[in-house]
Amino acid sequence: MDISIVVPLFNEEESLPELLRWIKEVMDNNKFSYEVVMVDDGSKDKSWKVVENLKSEYPFIKAIKFRRNYGKSAALHTGFSVAEGDVVVTMDADLQDSPEEVPELYQMIMRDGFDLVSGWKKKRHDPISKRFPSKIYNRFVRIVTGIKLHDFNCGLKAYSHEVVKSVEVYGDMHRYMPVIAKAAGFKKIGEKVVQHQARKFGVSKFGFGRFRGMFDLITISFISKFGKKPMQFFGTFGTLMFFAGLIAAGWLGAEKLISMWKGVRAPLVTSSPYFYIALTSMIIGTQLFLAGFLGELVSRSSSDRNKYEIEDKI
């Protein structure tokens, strides 16, 4: 099968018939073999009933319904698990992502050898309440990850089959699929300017709430670097803090002994604020070291401690 299109949806009953017609027209015109995997993320409207009715008209549909709303990452993870296409394309169900972009995204994966291609909505038809936080968010992610993409949160992305079967997405990690893919060893990540459609039905599900995803960015960045070796992070900083505090405390003690040797009356060591700073530094350093040690024990007892992604064998 050439293409699997994974469509997570939540309360999009009005847009689904038009979306399926549009996808079918584009796919048939380009003579692709394809499937559309629709994952209903606990919709409260009639979205699932609409999908059931469309299934008889469009037999290429695979549909999954969650009992409740778990979030976009859960929907994508479930869709990826059943996708069979050589290229897996994700798009939102609100008609703001154009299926007309799919053929070129497919070619960028199959012809140009990209592992992942992310859409870039260069010209957006969204209110400033969405555009402004999105700009800040994308600039921050570029700085932290070093991945030069303009629109990490674009729902229109294409992946090779190997990528979607090798990575795990959860929480709000769908925003960071390029980061997750890069951490898994898929380094050929591209970008394509895509047409952004004005919303026809319903209301946006996102806004300033996307800033919560920055905590997930910290998690991904840390796990990708230190997930299997936490002692390198906690142990290093803990040791540095402990010895900095120890040296400071030693300096205060030496200063007191020198004053006594010279017969000069010196204040108590404990009367200096630097004594408490040094003591606090040693305590925090010890705690960080122990955190790294415990993390190392957990990591070494993990069932996937020796799980590595193998690209090829001969």
Structure characteristics:
seven-stranded mixed beta sheet, 48% helix, 2 domains, 314 residues, Spore Coat Polysaccharide Biosynthesis Protein SpsA, Chain A, alpha/beta
Write a structural description:
This protein has about 325 residues and is α/β, with parallel strands linked by helices. The protein folds into two domains: about 5-225, Spore Coat Polysaccharide Biosynthesis Protein SpsA, Chain A; about 230-300. The chain is about 50% helix and about 10% strand. It is built from ten helices and seven strands. It has helices at about 15-30, 45-55, 70-80, 100-110, 130-145, 160-165, 175-185, 215-225, 230-260, 275-300; strands spanning about 5-10, 35-40, 60-65, 85-90, 115-120, 155-160, 190-195. Strands 3-2-1-4-6-5-7 form a seven-stranded mixed sheet, sandwiched between helices. Strand 1, helix 1 and strand 2 form a beta-alpha-beta unit. Helix 9 runs antiparallel to helix 10 (about 275-300). The longest helix is centred in the last third of the chain and has 32 residues, at about 230-260. It is elongated, with a radius of gyration of 26 Å. The two termini are about 25 Å apart.
